Amino acid sequence: MTEECVDFLEVAKKRRSVYHFDPDKELENDLLKKIINLAVLAPSSYNMQPWRIIAVKSQEKRQEVYDRACSQQKVLDAPVLLIILGDKEGYKRKNPIWDEKIRLGKLNEDKVRKVIRRNDKSKQDPTKATAFAVRNSSLLAMSIMLTAQRFGVNTHPMIGFNAAETRKLFDLGENFEVTMMISAGYFDQNKELKSRETRFEYDDIVEEY
Ligand SMILES: Cc1cc2nc3c(=O)[nH]c(=O)nc-3n(C[C@H](O)[C@H](O)[C@H](O)COP(=O)(O)O)c2cc1C
To answer: Quick check: is 35 in a domain?
Structure first.
């Protein structure tokens, strides 16, 4: 755990929300899989991983999303659009992670039942159910963007879309929150990358006690 990942500094500095993607440069499926399979190392509540991803690759389908995503050009230009979903019911007993916890002796069936019952209760409040889904899946989204950058793949996160229409388009259940969309591909080198805007730093945002 004490090993230094020098490379991360570069990844963090280089990641940008890229506006212009090269529409002629494909994102190879093997690389996309590699990115996702590393990004899922993101932490989640009870390791429940209450998330799903829709990878929209076809131009036709991306056009349909574009119509529901404020006509954001990057949805059409980037070869892959990832739709990050948070599952409000991801903590339920059918999640195989519970079985793993029992198998490993971390929890027993009785304890699992109690934890799920507690979650069922708190998630009757829709705000809490949504927060559970969005908090967890947002961490996955960030992990995807940083991992993509590690492999030279550019991204752009978006929440400018009609969630209800998107849910309808992909026939998603009510348990899913459409957390974010991420365009992924390669920056169009013929375009100019906007300079990064100011970031608030430690003294601006941290209150010490
Ligand atoms: C949750 C979230 C939603 C965003 N939604 C949009 C969006 O709908 N459209 C857009 O052009 N940019 C969107 N952005 C990109 C931000 O504008 C961008 O991250 C910010 O200006 C900082 O720039 P940087 O990512 O290049 O450092 C979003 C970013 C985040 C984190």
So the answer is: yes
